[in-house]
């Protein structure tokens, strides 16, 4: 079975099937568990019903616990030795202990934390195009300050984990991946080709979000993307009582799922990147237009980050270049 799965994954033409496998994985309800405090409140009959829904192939042994008047609080205190005393075999014991451990698992993070994911496959390209159009600058001069992009989306809130960036190669400038890693971000890169152009990126982002909502207590998922089919993971995030922020270029996306309209209305925010582009987009290089007026500074002490900070504070689009190491225009 494992060899068959690996064969499917290695076949680029089967990437659609892999994507569906990822979606199915995201929809498995195995982690939809009550909290330990909720289970402690169960009486013996309520515990019986809960266990039979979760472990329906060991019904007889669940009834044994009910016969012994094991309620929710007593259930969470059960050990392998205690289950053995009830003459419950090793197999069912293992399943029961595993369920107890999952219920009592301590989630990391805090409710006010944010967890940021960047689907760079289109954010980079669309950002350059949109900025070039707005500022009448050559597209090849436009760059993204990823630190400022994250800072803008974070908006002073507590970052619960390292930002995650997923993209494809080759981008127009391969050096962006090294820059992102230097910022301390978690970076995953896939090769882009005509068969599986961006589907691996979508699936990887979805899986990383799924890992986060499983390991951390509900907070806010921030997704920065250009496009992509994130419906399955959005529904999963909402099911787990998380909040979603989606940052998109231009028209954004439609996430109007009828059965989730209430959750979407109260726990989902769509934000247009166009409204904030001056905070993280800039141009670097000479455009060759002689009529352009420049402010020239002769120094090698000013870093690009200092220049960008100045432009952001002035709410201006940043554009500069260095004719020489000690000259800045």
UniProtKB/TrEMBL annotation:
GO terms for molecular function: RNA nuclease activity. It comes from the Eukaryota. Residues 114-248 form the NYN domain. It holds the Pfam family NYN. InterPro entries: NYN, SAM/pointed_sf. This is 7489_t:CDS:1. It comes from Funneliformis caledonium.
């Amino acid at each position: 079975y494992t060899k068959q799965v690996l064969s499917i994954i290695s076949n680029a033409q089967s990437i659609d099937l892999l994507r569906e496998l990822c979606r199915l994985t995201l929809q498995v309800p195995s982690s939809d568990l009550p909290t330990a405090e909720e289970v402690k409140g169960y009486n013996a009959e309520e515990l019986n019903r809960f266990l039979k829904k979760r472990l329906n192939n060991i019904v007889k042994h669940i009834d044994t616990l009910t016969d012994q008047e094991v309620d929710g609080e007593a259930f969470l205190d059960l050990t392998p030795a205690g289950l053995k005393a009830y003459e419950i075999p090793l197999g069912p014991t293992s399943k029961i202990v595993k369920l107890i451990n999952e219920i009592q698992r301590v989630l990391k993070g805090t409710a006010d934390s944010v967890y940021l994911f960047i689907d760079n496959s289109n954010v980079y390209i669309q950002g350059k195009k949109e900025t070039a159009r707005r500022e009448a600058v050559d597209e090849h001069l436009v760059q993204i300050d990823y630190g400022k992009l994250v800072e803008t989306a974070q908006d002073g809130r507590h970052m619960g984990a390292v930002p995650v960036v997923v993209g494809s190669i080759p981008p127009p400038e391969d050096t962006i991946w090294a820059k992102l890693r230097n910022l301390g971000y978690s970076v995953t890169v896939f090769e882009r080709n005509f068969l599986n152009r961006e589907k691996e990126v979508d699936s990887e982002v979805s899986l990383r979000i799924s890992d986060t909502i499983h390991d951390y207590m509900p907070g806010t998922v921030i997704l920065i993307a250009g496009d992509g089919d994130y419906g399955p993971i959005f529904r999963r995030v909402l099911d787990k009582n998380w909040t979603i922020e989606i940052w998109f270029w231009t028209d954004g996306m439609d996430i109007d799922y009828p059965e989730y309209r209430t959750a979407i209305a109260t726990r989902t925010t769509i934000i247009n990147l166009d409204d904030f582009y001056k905070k993280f987009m800039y141009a670097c290089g000479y455009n060759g237009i002689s009529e352009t007026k420049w402010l020239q500074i002769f120094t090698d002490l000013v870093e690009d980050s200092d220049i960008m900070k100045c432009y952001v504070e002035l709410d201006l689009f940043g554009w500069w270049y260095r004719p020489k190491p000690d000259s800045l225009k």
